[in-house]
């Protein structure tokens, strides 16, 4: 998505753009599976901060809403806790959120959450410029370090877990906050406190479903890139980035041919770029830096085609385990969690199911990366299917037994994600945000090679639909400043 968005922006700026995509469909991790009238998004299941895409479309042609239909997701999530308590979190309404938290968890919890979101709003204002909307530079770090008020607000030395422990009295509400670390593939005990901006963004700017599935957004961005003049080459694998005369000169394809260019924008995972697509001497320094950063977690997915309807089911349901810390210990220790959090996405969208007496469920659990020999081998015979059975059993124990309604299922593992997207080990977000220096270890948009730029979830500012769109905006501006001559095709 970052690469397509960058292509659209660069095309609109008058550059001649060629997009090389290894698969037969563009969109990266925003995938889809359709079968027997059921359609499943296999990547993101909601859109937050839609302004990032509204800006993209306005800068490259007509408005976003001319291409896709955005529908508010309300409630955003239904949380089910181990003690049986349920919390339905409303969409984009401070008053409604306060009421819902108070009714489910008590007035103290409502006060605490409201105060947390007010704090997160201040963190958002302090970080959005240097950390999200511009390339992160040493000058930004120095400026932030000298701004004592901003430094105290962001508190880079604190973890997200610490924020929850200090500000939220109810352990169930702390579980809700901890979960936002997984939005960056991270452990809340080590992820930075600044990630509290994610629930603020959801509450302030809303959470949105794209009618027909998030894949429609990917198709719209791809179409916009083509409309701005980009040449889209599907099934075109890049074997290496060419560096000649000390700068990027194009790419060599798997068939041995080359595409010459004045500028190369890599939308691949940064570890793939520096580890396989560049000569070792050129990639040595950024690769050493990358190895100091911990890769993000991955995900184990079930696509369930179900008969009948589930009373009271909302778009998103999160089923928490009794021991949340054990899940993070397992996942980042290379082990499959025995009792994971289970996330169910079941959009009430007629375009995603064959009839009104059926449901299409996307079920996700946090999972260790595919690391045969040293960690979990997701390709081991029978392993994935056995774990799928275990997840269905966990769903049943937590009140959502759908085994007798199952028409069929598709199992997708971290190994599948690695094969499809070349994300090492199936790491969803590239590097995690674990540790206070994580943001500064994430690869910069400008590589050490002149004329080579990075875009997408594994580079600055990070993963997720909004951030990769911001990444594309940053890269397009950097290319415009660095290259005043048209790109060659």
Automatic annotation (TrEMBL):
Signal peptide location: none
Gene Ontology biological process: carotenoid biosynthetic process
Gene3D superfamilies on file: FAD/NAD(P)-binding domain (3.50.50.60)
Residue span(s) of domain Amine oxidase: 1-309
Protein's pathway: Carotenoid biosynthesis
Alphabetical UniProt keywords: Carotenoid biosynthesis, Oxidoreductase
One example GO MF annotation: oxidoreductase activity
Presence of keyword Transmembrane: no
PANTHER family recorded: PHYTOENE DESATURASE
Family assignment from sequence similarity: Belongs to the carotenoid/retinoid oxidoreductase family.
Record-given protein name: Phytoene desaturase
């Amino acid at each position: 998505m970052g690469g397509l968005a960058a292509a659209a922006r660069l095309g609109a700026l008058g550059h001649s753009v060629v997009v090389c995509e290894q698969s037969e469909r563009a969109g990266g991790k925003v995938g889809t599976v359709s079968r027997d009238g059921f359609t499943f998004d296999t990547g993101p299941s909601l859109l937050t901060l839609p302004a990032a895409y509204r800006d993209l479309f306005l800068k490259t042609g007509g408005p976003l809403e001319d291409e896709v239909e955005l529908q508010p997701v309300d409630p955003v999530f239904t949380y089910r806790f181990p003690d049986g308590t349920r919390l339905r979190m409303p969409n984009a309404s401070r008053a409604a959120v306060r009421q819902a938290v108070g009714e489910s968890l008590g007035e103290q919890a409502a006060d605490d959450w409201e105060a947390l979101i007010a704090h997160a709003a201040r963190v958002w204002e302090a970080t959005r410029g240097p950390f999200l909307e511009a390339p992160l530079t040493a000058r930004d770090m120095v400026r932030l370090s000298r701004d004592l008020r901003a430094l105290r607000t962001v508190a880079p030395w604190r973890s997200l877990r610490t924020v929850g422990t200090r500000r939220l009295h109810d352990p169930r509400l702390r579980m809700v906050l901890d979960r936002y670390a997984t939005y960056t593939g991270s452990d809340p005990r080590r992820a930075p406190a600044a990630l509290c901006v994610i629930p603020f963004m959801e509450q302030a700017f809303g959470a949105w479903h794209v009618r027909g599935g998030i894949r429609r957004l990917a198709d719209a961005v791809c179409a916009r890139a083509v409309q701005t003049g980009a040449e889209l080459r599907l099934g075109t694998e890049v074997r290496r980035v060419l560096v000649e005369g000390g700068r990027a000169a194009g790419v060599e394809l798997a068939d041995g041919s080359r595409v010459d260019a004045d500028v190369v924008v890599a939308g691949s995972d940064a570890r793939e770029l520096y580890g396989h697509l560049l000569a070792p001497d050129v990639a040595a320094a950024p690769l050493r830096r990358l190895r100091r950063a911990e890769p993000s977690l991955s995900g184990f997915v079930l696509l369930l085609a179900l008969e009948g309807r589930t009373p009271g089911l909302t778009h998103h349901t999160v089923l928490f385990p009794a021991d949340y810390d054990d899940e993070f210990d397992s996942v980042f220790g290379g082990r499959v969690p025995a009792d994971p959090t289970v996330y169910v996405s079941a959009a009430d969208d007629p375009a995603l199911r064959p009839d009104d007496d059926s449901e299409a469920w996307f079920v996700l659990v946090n999972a260790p990366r595919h690391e045969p020999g040293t960690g979990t081998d997701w390709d081991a015979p029978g392993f994935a299917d056995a774990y799928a059975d275990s997840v269905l059993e966990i769903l049943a124990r937590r009140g959502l037994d759908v085994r007798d309604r199952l028409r069929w299922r598709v199992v997708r593992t971290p190994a599948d994600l690695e094969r499809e997207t070349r994300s090492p080990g199936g790491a969803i977000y590239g590097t995690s945000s674990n540790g206070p220096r994580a943001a500064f270890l994430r690869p910069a948009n400008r590589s050490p090679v002149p004329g080579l730029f990075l875009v997408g979830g594994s580079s600055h500012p990070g993963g997720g639909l909004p951030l990769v769109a911001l990444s594309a905006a940053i890269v397009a501006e950097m290319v415009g400043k660095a290259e005043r001559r048209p790109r060659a095709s």
